[in-house]
Amino acid sequence: MAMLLQLTTFLQQYVYEKGHEVPKAATALRIGVLSTAMINAAAIIRPALSHGDVIISAIASRNLKQAQENARKYGIPKAYGSYQELLNEPGIDAVYISLPNGMHGTWAKKALESGKHVLLEKPFTANADEARQIARLAQEKNLILVEAFHWQFHPASHAVKALVDSGKYGQVLRTYARMTSPAGSIPRSDIRWQYALAGGSLMDMTYVISSTRYYLGAGAPREIAEAKARATREDPRVDEAMEATLRYDLNGRMVESKIYSDMDRANLLGIIPRAWEMPSIEIETEHAIIYYYNFMMPHLYHYIQIYDKRTGQTHTEKHYSGGPQWGRRGEAWWSTYRYQLEAFVDKVRGREPPHWVTLDSSIAQMETIDAIYEKSGLGKRQPTPESVDPPRV
Asked: What does each C-alpha distance from 323 to 155, 267, 282, 331 come to in angstroms?
């Protein structure tokens, strides 16, 4: 239900952010947006309205008219007909990159070389080799580069992490993360189906790996025990679904984690879309089973269900603000993206944010994705070749 979640977030952002616009500081961070992708409004443009230290000052597309239309629509001062033109603009402090997956590494590198901080959409790059390259460059340039795993910045996600790490319910035994979208909900013309743009369900629904690793506090798994891809009819190199079993070594203790991503999930009885299958993760510990429903967009709706094996009792929690990491910062109406923006600005300004996605974590994320693709037989994704004419976003 990824598409539905995104559309609902657009509406939520429009309603709440429009009502909470704040004056901008004279020294506000000026952010440029590379692409006119649909996600931009929810991910950066609307959240910036309620942040006094952020101005979205430019947007770029390979289609100048498209960039100009987006600039008018969202009140962005400048529009450019190429990404490099925006990067050449000295008044831009940072960029948000929402280009197709296979172009992430190339344009993150160019942005860093242009002296810009980078908020980079997931997946970080096409593969781990690219991830290491741009991470090293960011460190050399002393610039901020972060993968936009927005869900990790939300108080509900931190509440689950605190439960797992507290030891109250013992050690983790296993995990299972799932993310699906109903059959036909993602048009076959969408970039997510294109191999040349590093498409595939595991690349798009990489949240299943991110959530697994976050709650285990782990890097790449010790081994991929099994990986089974269901390839598309149009291109056998692209996975419309992926199932995998990952084995993690946690201080000498093996934990098995299963993940499932599906961009074309079959309808129940062939007719009923599985609208209830929101991105979720189940974490079994020695004394409990913790289920986090809709971890990807918890600001819209979520619940955390804890079944205590010792008592047989189940209780449910919800967390929309505060929590163990944000404390009194934040508002209940903030989206995951708004929390993420708050942390990004903190980091760029030299402050330590309540939560952060490290470069080492993003490299481990891509190493995991590569390993699953290799085990499945599809092979790891590659950067988009210069010979390919990508969508003019």
From this structure: 5, 37, 20, 11
Residues 151-201 have pLDDT tens digits of: 999 999 999 999 999 999 999 999 999 999 999 999 999 999 999 999 999
Task: For residue 230, give the amino acid letter.
Answer: R
- Cα within 13 Å of Cα(93), Cβ side: 16
> Worst-scoring range by mean pLDDT, 16-30, 117-131, 217-231?
16-30
What is the Cα–Cα distance from 47 to 316, expressed in whole angstroms?
29
Could you tell me the sign of the dihedral formed by the alpha carbons of 293, 298, 301, 304, in that order?
A: positive
- Position of tokens 């600001």? 299
Question: Angle at the Cα of 174 (from 169 to 177), degrees rounded to 5?
Answer: 110
* CA 274 to each of CA 2, 113, 299, 348: distance values in angstroms, whole numbers, following the listed order: 12, 44, 21, 41
* Residue 16 pLDDT > 70: no
Helix (H, G, I), strand (E, B) or coil at 52: coil
Active site residue 122: yes
Residue indicated by tokens 């000295």: 90
Question: Whose structure tokens read 């191999």?
Answer: 195
DSSP string, 266-302: PPBTTTB--TT--SEEEEEESSEEEEEET-SSTTT--
Place of tokens 């009140």: 75
Is residue 325 within 8 A of residue 121, CB to CB? The reply is no
Q: Is the pLDDT of residue 8 over 70?
A: no
Integer Rg of the chain from CA: 20
Measured distance CA(304)–CA(378) in Å, rounded? 35
Q: Is 65 helix (H, G, I), strand (E, B) or coil?
A: helix
Other C-beta atoms lying within 10 Å of the C-beta of residue 184: 11
Distance, in Å, from the CA atom of 81 to the CA atom of 355, rounded to the nearest integer, reads 35
Could you tell me the two tokens for 261?
């991503």
The answer to whether 103 touches 60, Cβ cutoff 8 Å, is no
As a whole number of angstroms, the distance between CA 288 and CA 316 comes to 13
- Considering 122, 161, 258, 375, which one is annotated as catalytic? 122
Phi, psi (5° rounding) for residue 142? 55, 45
**Which residues, 6+ apart, have CB-to-CB distance to 81 below 8 Å?**
60, 61, 62, 63, 64, 67
